[in-house]
Amino acid sequence: MEKSDLLLCHGVPGSVLGCPGSTAATPQHISPVQSAGIWHSSVKVLQTAELVLIPERWTTCSAFFTAGACSPGCSLLCPCVSVVAASRPAEKPELPSLHRELDPVGWSRVPVWESSPGVYRASQKQVSVPAEAFYQNHGTLYSMMKGKMGPSNLHMFTGTLCRELHEHMGHLGTKGAGDLNDLVRHVMYPAVVNTLFGKGICPTSQSELKEFEEHFQKYDEDFEYASQMPECFLRNWSKSKKWLLKLFEKVVSDAERTNPSETTSKTLLQHLLDNLQGKHLAPNYGLLMLWASQANAVPIAFWTLVFILSYPSIYKKTMEDLTSVFGKAGKDKIEVSEEDLKNLPFIKWCTLEAIRLRSPGAITKKVVNPIRIQNFTVPAGDMLMLSPYWLHRNPKYFPDPEMFKPDRWKEANLEKNAFLDSFVAFGGGKHQCPGRWFAIMEIQLFVVLFLYKYEFVLLDAVPKESPLHLVGTQQPMAPFRVQYKCRE
């Protein structure tokens, strides 16, 4: 194979392959670097950027980063690296950078890429869906999810979810202490599952829940790595995946048995079963739907609460808004309608600001038609990656980018379902996350109920976000313990 340049651009200038703790100068030459069976001889570390170009002949997006080229303690797949660009020997393009004049929102309106190849790789390995079945179902299921979970249909979920959240908050008691992340998970998991899958379909009793949570947490922790590595290297993950798929055989069977004829009475899982071609894959798609509904919403709900509780002025504003809508805080089991949520825009801003600050390291697209970016043409078949994490820290688009400033969302036209320019946490174009509006609603509703019912004492400093995941919401590096008690 001919030598080619691999340009690695990351968010911390001077660190080798983007790894924290490195003090290498920039540019840094490393020779050779083994990458998924391919040897690259000239590797340079450059400045911060947000764009990734990966040639078609490289079949993975992150597996070619090896620990041998990194600082001690770095993850095998180096998820700290957020931006990559590759050039052929005869070409020396200037690396496009979204810190300059490149407008990511503009690209998303041009039909030059597709999201399904990146989604497919995850579906193939994480939930064992064959390629033919994936492409056969992708368009239909995406359109169904987008429609059922769109803004015009959120009222169909709000009442049920509100009742479920009240029920499972009741299990926390009138007072207690614990890691806030665990408290959020113990409430949101059963409430959301019962809302989307149907009450009693998935295990939500306390005895069954513990075993399930252990398997789901392991499945979620290594979900990203499983897209790049054989299952034989992730035995515990593989064991949990098989356990969950076995569980979903029963879940699907129960959902099919109770599937009503009236469309308005169906759960989201039953709508999925009605539209799925290849019924033998129903457990696989059910597991994928469960992961999609939990993996990002739970940590974002956690971070939203962390930011609100750790900023006194923001907490005060939040409680004043709650009191103005529902009266003095502490009433038992308030009913929250979609209209009530519209009257609480500040909490929605807090949710979106938490999403901005804890967004994924990268979103991957496959180029289907050549696209010219500045003086470089990206050929069809190459993979294009965008880093929401770094784009959302660009002061050109988000002044004081490291600050938690919910008021910046005043400028967004949320009434018309439009985010701020350059906010790409949910992707862009026609293949944005189909459940994004439901996710924002469920987090906002949970935060409203949780803060209205309980008052908190913080026992730990705000944790830093973990650098160990490139895909999905950033997780906390340490526990965040709180004491809580019901308001009087």
Largest sheet: 4 strands, antiparallel
CATH topology of the largest domain: Cytochrome p450
- Write down the Rg: 23 Å
Number of DSSP helices?
A: 16
The mean pLDDT is 76
SSE order in H/E notation? EEEEEEHEHHHEHHHHHHHHHHEEEEHHEE
Q: Which structural category do the helix and sheet elements fall into?
A: alpha+beta
Number of domains: 2
Distance from N terminus to C terminus (CA atoms, Å) equals: 71 Å
Task: Please identify the oligomeric state.
Answer: single chain
Using the coordinates above, name the CATH class of the largest domain.
Mainly Alpha
Query: CATH-wise, what's the superfamily of the largest domain?
Result: Cytochrome P450
Short structural description:
This protein has helices at residues 104-108, 116-126, 131-148, 155-169, 180-197, 206-221, 223-226, 235-257, 268-275, 282-294, 297-310, 312-326, 338-342, 345-357, 388-391, 436-453; strands at 5-9, 33-35, 38-40, 42-45, 51-54, 83-87, 113-114, 175-179, 363-367, 371-373, 376-378, 383-386, 454-458, 481-486.
Overview of the structural elements:
The chain has a four-stranded antiparallel β-sheet, covered by helices on one side. A three-stranded mixed β-sheet has the order 4-1-6, with no helix packed on it. Strands 8-14-13 form a three-stranded antiparallel β-sheet. The protein is built from 16 helices and 14 strands. Helix 3 packs across helix 9, helix 11 crosses helix 14 and helix 14 packs across helix 16 (436-453). It has helices at residues 104-108, 116-126, 131-148, 155-169, 180-197, 206-221, 223-226, 235-257, 268-275, 282-294, 297-310, 312-326, 338-342, 345-357, 388-391, 436-453; strands spanning 5-9, 33-35, 38-40, 42-45, 51-54, 83-87, 113-114, 175-179, 363-367, 371-373, 376-378, 383-386, 454-458, 481-486. The chain folds into two domains: 1-115 and 361-391, no CATH class; 129-360 and 392-486, Cytochrome P450 (Cytochrome p450), CATH 1.10.630.10. With 488 residues, the protein is α+β, with helices and mostly antiparallel strands. Helices cover 41% and strands 12% of the residues. The N and C termini lie far apart (71 Å). Pathway: Steroid biosynthesis; zymosterol biosynthesis; zymosterol from lanosterol: step 1/6. This is Lanosterol 14-alpha demethylase. Keywords: Cholesterol metabolism, Heme, Iron, Lipid metabolism, Membrane, Metal-binding, Monooxygenase, Oxidoreductase, Steroid metabolism, Sterol metabolism, Transmembrane, Transmembrane helix. The chain crosses the membrane at residues 285-309.
